[in-house]
Amino acid sequence: MSNTDFVLAVEDLTVSFDGFKAIDSLNFYLDRNELRVVIGPNGAGKTTLLDLICGKTRASHGSIKFRNEEMTRVPEYLRVRKGIGRKFQTPSIYENLSVFQNLEVSFPRGRGVFGALAFRRDDEVRDRVRAVADEIGLAGQLDTEAGLLSHGQKQWLEIGMLLMQEPELLMLDEPIAGMSVREREITAELLKRICVNRSMIVIEHDMAFVEQIAHKVTVMHQGKILAEGNMEQVQSDQRVIDVYLGH
Ligand code: ADP
């Protein structure tokens, strides 16, 4: 299969931990501007798949191509520079800094030729901070200390810190955990907006939220893909009902 049209092409990916295949000969393709949600029971391999794509975990076998470029053996920090951004569940904001400063410190400094330090002008950084703050709905809170933000706002700020790195692919792990109903709605709109010019993979359990945001759903089970398609297709798939939705 040609990878040309995919922002991400994962082929025959396998990772073993002490002989146990957490990801087993998996193929996964993501279109540009696609918002893909990955679902499946605990232990299915969802987190491990994202760990492999961002480079936190090294594959035992197979290949990961991002924008047609081989990533499989590229270290994690370089994958970030190439445009793969991952938000982990553990909080990473600086509570004592303002929203502005949190975004400012996330601005990439090392994108010059051969990794040389690329100095950015202050006004360029400020413009980018303002644009991102606007995108995540925190333009009115730039001077607020991050520790004083609501739970939802902190999550949006973290997404903003990722956006500062100008990723082409964002990966989020359960982005609405702990959020109020209103915050979930705002997050759904935010994620859809982000995908207008980027791609995204989201791990999520809340099926109402999945239905709201997903262009396409991948169902994982025992390190493999059990089913893939739109919400209607996966929801009516008996294998998916048996291992996941029916529980
Ligand atoms: P999910 O995110 O779908 O709940 P995970 O990707 O976290 O599943 O885990 C898939 C399987 O791989 C689980 O059985 C888990 O125990 C195992 N696993 C994940 N990471 C490691 C690791 N670093 N060492 C050993 N086993 C692991």
UniProtKB/TrEMBL annotation:
<feature type="domain" description="ABC transporter">
    <location>
        <begin position="8"/>
        <end position="247"/>
    </location>
</feature>
<dbReference type="InterPro" id="IPR051120">
    <property type="entry name" value="ABC_AA/LPS_Transport"/>
</dbReference>
<keyword id="KW-0547">Nucleotide-binding</keyword>
<dbReference type="GO" id="GO:0016887">
    <property type="term" value="F:ATP hydrolysis activity"/>
</dbReference>
<dbReference type="InterPro" id="IPR017781">
    <property type="entry name" value="ABC_transptr_urea_ATP-bd_UrtD"/>
</dbReference>
<dbReference type="Pfam" id="PF12399">
    <property type="entry name" value="BCA_ABC_TP_C"/>
</dbReference>
<keyword id="KW-0813">Transport</keyword>
<keyword id="KW-0067">ATP-binding</keyword>
<dbReference type="InterPro" id="IPR032823">
    <property type="entry name" value="BCA_ABC_TP_C"/>
</dbReference>
<protein>
    <submittedName>
        <fullName>Urea ABC transporter ATP-binding protein UrtD</fullName>
    </submittedName>
</protein>
<dbReference type="InterPro" id="IPR027417">
    <property type="entry name" value="P-loop_NTPase"/>
</dbReference>
<dbReference type="InterPro" id="IPR003439">
    <property type="entry name" value="ABC_transporter-like_ATP-bd"/>
</dbReference>
<dbReference type="GO" id="GO:0005524">
    <property type="term" value="F:ATP binding"/>
</dbReference>
<dbReference type="Pfam" id="PF00005">
    <property type="entry name" value="ABC_tran"/>
</dbReference>
<dbReference type="GO" id="GO:0005886">
    <property type="term" value="C:plasma membrane"/>
</dbReference>
